[in-house]
Amino acid sequence: MRDFSRDHAWLSINTATIRKQGDLLQISEACARHGIRAISPWRDQVAAVGLQATKAAVRRHGFKLSGYCRGGMFPADASRRQEARDDNRRAVDEAAALEAACLVLVVGGLPQYSRPGSAVSLDMALARTQVEDGIGELLDYAKSAGMPLAIEPLHPMYAADRACVNTLGQALDICDRLDPARTGALGVALDVYHVWWDPELHAGIRRAGLARLLAFHVCDWLVPTRDLLLDRGMMGDGVIEISKIRQAVEAEGFAGFSEVEIFSEADWWTRPMDEVLTTCIARHRSAV
Amino acid sequence: MRDFSRDHAWLSINTATIRKQGDLLQISEACARHGIRAISPWRDQVAAVGLQATKAAVRRHGFKLSGYCRGGMFPADASRRQEARDDNRRAVDEAAALEAACLVLVVGGLPQYSRPGSAVSLDMALARTQVEDGIGELLDYAKSAGMPLAIEPLHPMYAADRACVNTLGQALDICDRLDPARTGALGVALDVYHVWWDPELHAGIRRAGLARLLAFHVCDWLVPTRDLLLDRGMMGDGVIEISKIRQAVEAEGFAGFSEVEIFSEADWWTRPMDEVLTTCIARHRSAV
User: Which keywords does the record carry (chains A, B) (predicted)?
Assistant: First the structure.
């Protein structure tokens, strides 16, 4: 396993981690100031400052993009299906323009949450079929753009409203059906927050192998967790054995960035940007 | 599938559903008044009025007990292991005294949460081993008391602090190792709240079969869910396809009670007991 204790060469900052403290250009300046080599921006943050300005900042600071957040939200009724398709193709285009390592897919839950305005449905099996169909269709487009797609299995507590792909095994089943040759065009974004609880996690990581491990995200699970979405913890403040998971991922040959992604309304989003980044760096060294 | 639309003969009330509105004797009176035939009480509620008084109330009203809540919390450090063992044996004794259909096991998470005072550990694999060892040991005692043990897989959001058995498949693996002959002494309590999201749910129900399906619990998953523990919804108010799950359970031959278990601090716990029970009955007919 790589030694992270001496530097933060393999730290990436998911820019949602400090989204309340500044715009993407200010976040980029701060990351550069702290010697951070990689970021992973969100589409709304890019849109707010413009794709060209983002591209210029990425080039100026020499950033790598460990990923681009995010495509997905595939379940939709007929009235919203074209919107979902177009939106995802634009996400691929933006990711390609920024030379991201992959486009992260949060696949969506039931259609009324995934694409608001869609008719209400409680049919999870149908939502899952629509997800797989949507990824299959997008994959052709993404291949032509040379942009790998990373399915992010989300914690089961988000099954209804954010993603009906809820385990690594389920994500890998989709990968195997749509990309049986393991070409590198389709894989997973493994976020410890979503998968740490899974008794099949380590078997899943071995099954994934290097070809499917496109991104590795870290944060921590707090006890108690006070909000289902916005109470993620800083690495080391919760119960996840992060380094044991990183060890398993690296045993498969993964040698990419460790991307910090923390949504924390009551804590980290209220602190100064520099304090958050300083803490991310320290915890990257001690707790990842 | 049984027709629940005409009566509520197969409705059971888990007494936590109205725990804030009265003690167990008052709850029993109310259930009897509404023609409810079965309840499932919690140990602290029994302790508050006394086991003998509970027994007398159960006899007076002719209640069946669809289950008894709850044993478990197995992970513990050495200093708390005897406490865990003794506590679980008392739970079996109480369940037997009340002639419950099964003792429900919420198995516990990490030892510091499962048995407070235990040394801090983040080792989920170890906690899972302790759970299996604990169930194995308790099973011998429960068999001699004629009390079936029902492992309740809990939603993954409770993995750290309440139960590190988080999928039906994982629970069935334990059952198969400890009771390979499927004697009826060990099975699962299937609560739709905990398992509805699982893409392997229906395969798991088929695998469980009648021998392992000891209890069936219902409520609903609300979107948004405002609290990880205390924001369960009334059947029909959320996104779970409850009747589809009941259909699968009954296809295996399950013909027991449908037990309503709702923890709802901001809503159902604030309403009058009779209103909650009237609603449970109506939704049992229309949404289960």
Answer: Isomerase
> Which of B113, B166, B197 faces A197 most closely, judged by CB atoms?
B166
Query: Cα(A81)–Cα(A135) distance, rounded to whole angstroms?
Result: 13
Query: Which residues in chain A are contacts of B170 at CB distance < 8 A?
Result: 199
On the CB side of B63, how many CA atoms lie within 13 Å of its CA?
36
List residues bridging with B105 in a β-sheet: B71, B151
Q: Which residue has the tokens 């100026």?
A: A60
Calculate the CA A233 to chain-centre distance.
16
A195 in contact with B at a CB cutoff of 8 Å? no
Say if CB A145 and CB A127 are below 8 A apart.
no
Strand order across the beta sheet in which A186-191 lies: A64-65, A38-40, A11-14, A258-260, A213-218, A186-191, A149-151, A103-106, A68-72
B136 CB burial (10 A radius; 0-12, 13-18, 19+): middle
Amino acid letter, residue B226: R
**Which CA distances in Å does B156 have to A31, A127, B228, B262?**
34, 21, 11, 18
Task: Give the gap in angstroms from C-alpha A18 to the nearest C-alpha of chain B.
Answer: 23
Task: List Cβ neighbours of B70 (8 Å cut-off, separation of 6 or more).
Answer: B42, B43, B91, B103, B104, B105, B106, B152
Report the b/e string of B85-97 with b at 16+ CB within 10 A. bebbbebbbbbbb
Residues of B whose CB is below 8 A from A118: none
Per-residue pLDDT of A78-132, as tens digits, reads: 999 999 999 999 999 999 999 999 999 999 999 999 999 999 999 999 999 999 9
Pick the CATH number of A11-287 from 2.60.120.10, 3.30.240.20, 3.20.20.150, 3.90.25.10: 3.20.20.150
| Residue B208, amino acid | A
* Helix then strand then coil, % of chain A, to nearest 5: 45, 15, 40
> Which one of B199, B223, B228 has the shortest CB-CB distance to A161?
B223
* Cα dihedral sign, A246-A252-A253-A259: negative
| Residue whose entry in the numeric block shows the structure tokens 């008084």 | B53
Cβ–Cβ below 8 Å for A166 and B197: yes
Q: How far apart are CA B65 and CA B13, in angstroms?
A: 9
Q: What is the pLDDT along chain B (288 residues), one digit of tens a residue?
A: 999 999 999 999 999 999 999 999 999 999 999 999 999 999 999 999 999 999 999 999 999 999 999 999 999 999 999 999 999 999 999 999 999 999 999 999 999 999 999 999 999 999 999 999 999 999 999 999 999 999 999 999 999 999 999 999 999 999 999 999 999 999 999 999 999 999 999 999 999 999 999 999 999 999 999 999 999 999 999 999 999 999 999 999 999 999 999 999 999 999 999 999 999 999 999 999
Using CA atoms, how far residue A52 sits from A42, A46, A94, A142, A245, in Å, is 15, 9, 10, 21, 36
